[in-house]
What does this fold into?
Amino acid sequence: MNRLQIQLGFILILLALLTPFGMPLFVNTRLGLASHIVGITGGLVLIALGALSASFALGARSAAVMMATWVYAAYANWLACLIGAITGASRLTPIAGAGTAADALSESVVSFLLQSLAVAAIAGTALAVWGFRKPKPAIAASAVAAAQP
It folds into this structure.
């Protein structure tokens, strides 16, 4: 179990639960709602990965990279939607951001966050799939020992 990962998941859920209080200030309330939803969903994913961390057959460095990419992706997704909601940035969110636009800096920040989190999420998912390709050696050995009379 990765307690830090689980704690970061709960912190993201807390931030996501506080997000709707800013709705009256948002230029784009649909992106505000999206920020709320992706924050809760991302937090739950972080909690699940933290709880499963001992099950991945990965080295210490690969496991750390997997967890870091998931933390970045979850927080960047929440933040990109929040910035889009506050500023109206919608270049990469044409459906949720329909009818709004922001200054070039806001659009660039949101675009960077969304594109970089996509790369991080793909890397984290690939590492998770790779980590579950076979049972972790210590777990497999203990399961075989427990099955023998």
The helical segments are 3-18, 29-52, 60-87, 104-131, 137-147. The chain has one domain: 3-135. Residues 3-135 form one domain.
